[in-house]
């Protein structure tokens, strides 16, 4: 066998290794990775309880390690704020796409703002030095049970979206609504259901 034929066989072998991938099945619900030395193709099909179908699907393509295509939704883990103020323990889960900002306000023990895209449209949680109180014509109150079994009182005026929220049994903690949109107020309540505000003694 001549040197040219040997070189040709080696080149052909390298080409085949570079071109043809080795499939790898992941134990995440059905994702398959096709890996070669020159490229990677990942057909994503993994379990996801947060989607209607129960799966996250998509495609990722990499060439020589560089990602050139990815249509898989990026999931950011929810943030959690844990705070202890006097005899109160606050555990606040923050949904994806929501922002928060702790405020330094002279008249309050603690204050934190929650908003999506516009900080002027927000909800602010206050820990006051004294019990919260409000009154007014046309005010209605409804109650909502949180995931931990505690209850909140939701105040609104003239059947409009909620204006204030108080935590039953913790009278100095309240939330005021500063122009959240209708969708944002609903989403905020869904987030609030996962919160826990308890006494430490």
Description:
The chain is mainly beta and 201 residues long. It folds into two domains: 3-70, no CATH class; 79-199, no CATH class. It contains two helices and 15 strands. The chain has helices spanning 3-19, 182-192; strands spanning 22-25, 32-35, 39-47, 55-63, 66-70, 79-85, 88-94, 99-103, 108-115, 122-128, 139-145, 151-157, 164-167, 170-178, 196-199. The strands form three sheets. It has a seven-stranded antiparallel beta sheet with strand order 8-9-10-14-13-12-11. Strands 1-2-3-4-5 form a five-stranded antiparallel beta sheet, with no helix packed on it. The chain has a three-stranded antiparallel beta sheet with strand order 6-7-15, with no helix packed on it. Strand 4 (55-63) and strand 5 (66-70) form a beta hairpin. The N and C termini lie far apart (88 Å).
């Amino acid at each position: 066998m001549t040197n040219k034929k040997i070189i040709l066989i080696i080149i052909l072998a390298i080409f085949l290794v570079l071109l043809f991938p080795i499939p790898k099945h992941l134990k995440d619900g059905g994702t398959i990775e096709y890996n070669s030395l020159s490229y990677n193709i990942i057909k994503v099909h993994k379990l996801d309880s947060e989607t209607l179908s129960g799966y996250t699907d998509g495609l990722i393509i990499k060439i020589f390690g560089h990602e050139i295509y990815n249509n898989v939704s990026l999931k950011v883990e929810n943030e959690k704020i844990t705070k202890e103020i006097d005899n109160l323990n606050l555990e606040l889960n923050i949904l994806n796409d929501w922002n928060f900002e702790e405020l330094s306000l002279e008249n309050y023990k603690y204050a934190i703002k929650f908003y999506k895209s516009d900080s002027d449209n927000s909800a602010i949680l206050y820990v006051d030095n004294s019990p919260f109180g409000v009154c007014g014509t046309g005010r209605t109150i409804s109650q909502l049970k949180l995931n931990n079994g505690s209850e909140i009182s939701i105040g609104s005026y003239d059947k409009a979206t909620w204006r204030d929220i108080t935590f039953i049994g913790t009278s100095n903690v309240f939330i005021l609504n500063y122009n959240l949109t209708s969708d944002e107020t609903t989403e905020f309540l869904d987030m609030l259901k996962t919160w826990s505000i308890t006494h430490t003694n």
